[in-house]
Amino acid sequence: MRRETFHTPGPLTLDLRVPSGEITLESVDGEQTIVELDASGWNDDVRGIVEEARIELRERGDRHEVLVDVPRKRRGLGAIFDRADFRLHVTAPHGADVHVSTASADVDGRGRFGDLKAEVASGDLRIADLSGRADVKSGAYPSIRRTSPARGPFCDSSTVNSTR
Fold first, then answer.
1. Mean pLDDT in residue range 14-33
2. 120 in Cβ contact with 140 (< 8 Å)
3. Predicted TM-score (pTM) of this structure
């Protein structure tokens, strides 16, 4: 398993790009973001993919961005996608914005998050508490619980765009 810890005070965006598997998000009090990346079928090929993944902290104007980009590997002439299932667990401060892109992964967010931008071709998308806008492109119907109007905009067609 690969583990990285970043100091992320202030506004934060999680930019998560994982081809397949499971993505678990948890928001907590504090100023640290912890990224844990693992995979099934832990052989040399899969170990190499986990080690090659970009996991980094970047400054974006007045905010931090934590990028997790797991490469899509192909075998032979590039015709067959390496079907390793990745397990990504991210613990971040409350209110982090989430951008997630996956071909085939379940996404489960527990805690309080800000904006959500998601492209999930196949897999479940569950976000427990979202206070900002949601732009979701998904092959399945997402499950997003919105906060009350006192803490953020209420869920309506202008704040949740879900295409199937």
1. 96
2. yes
3. 0.83
